[in-house]
């Protein structure tokens, strides 16, 4: 049974990412479990879980680009910029045209400066922003540069309530992008307010919903819950290099290798195909950032 690796979980609604980690700890019978990239309780979809030595890969997973499908409701603003928070303002949106919606979303693509939602896990002076908001503070979070690689409008729906419009979108973006903030900013641009009513993460890097397991699936397989054993996970996530026997010995002891001209970080494997280390090249040497198979 493989005890080190990644699990691509299809997170259900209503659970925090930490709740999922706690469940996997119980199923895998180990404390060494972490996640790569938080999903809000309302959100569903791809959550990458690292178990044992693979927790060290999560630093790299968190930085991967991500894809989502989402629904924006125009005509209502909420304190959290999603459906979990109380409605703070309503403005009839029925007169907003499809063209205005598409134009407003087109302006949110490419490199943009985005102010994250005030109710988020970002730390302000060492304390989570959402904690400060819940204590009644007004929180100012500075804008950050993010990249929205692709933003497709799937559907514009006008439900029975004539004062709201629901917009289904499909987004691929850099790490650190808030889809909630896209909803809020579109509503602000159109003058009617907006918030997110549904969010599903469909991919993190090369890991997609196609390979995701539900918690019910994992319960059935426990304790054999690893979806991507450590070496396979490294192969999926990084460029690759195979070491000779001599290089394997050096790397296991944390020593540097001659460079191979690969843009790092990249994974180095021993001749049998087991992952040794994650390496990057600098100052004419290939040096291990993390050694996964020490001597």
Automatic annotation (TrEMBL):
Keyword Transcription regulation included in the entry's annotation: no
GO biological process: mRNA pseudouridine synthesis; tRNA pseudouridine synthesis
Pfam family membership, one: TruB_C_2
UniProt entry keywords in alphabetical sequence: Isomerase, tRNA processing
Sequence ranges assigned to domain Pseudouridine synthase II N-terminal in this UniProt record: 25-179
Top-level enzyme category: isomerase
Residues of the tRNA pseudouridine synthase II TruB subfamily 2 C-terminal domain: 238-292
Organism domain of life: Bacteria
SUPFAM superfamilies: Pseudouridine synthase, PUA domain-like
UniProt EC number: 5.4.99.25
UniProt catalytic activity: uridine(55) in tRNA = pseudouridine(55) in tRNA
Gene3D superfamilies membership: Pseudouridine synthase (3.30.2350.10), PUA domain (2.30.130.10)
Record: active site: 40 (nucleophile)
MF (Gene Ontology): RNA binding; tRNA pseudouridine(55) synthase activity
Residue ranges the record marks as coiled coil: none
Database matches in InterPro entries: PsdUridine_synth_cat_dom_sf (IPR020103), PsdUridine_synth_N (IPR002501), PUA-like_sf (IPR015947), PUA_sf (IPR036974), tRNA_psdUridine_synth_fam2_C (IPR015225), tRNA_psdUridine_synth_TruB (IPR014780), TruB_C (IPR032819)
Residue ranges occupied by any tRNA pseudouridylate synthase B C-terminal domain in the UniProt entry: 180-220
Keyword Flavoprotein among record annotations: no
Family, per entry: Belongs to the pseudouridine synthase TruB family. Type 1 subfamily.
Entry function: Responsible for synthesis of pseudouridine from uracil-55 in the psi GC loop of transfer RNAs.
Listed PANTHER family: PSEUDOURIDYLATE SYNTHASE TRUB1 (PTHR13767:SF2), TRNA-PSEUDOURIDINE SYNTHASE (PTHR13767)
Protein name per UniProt: tRNA pseudouridine synthase B
Phylogenetic lineage: Bacteria, Bacillati, Actinomycetota, Actinomycetes, Micromonosporales
Gene transcribed to yield this protein: truB
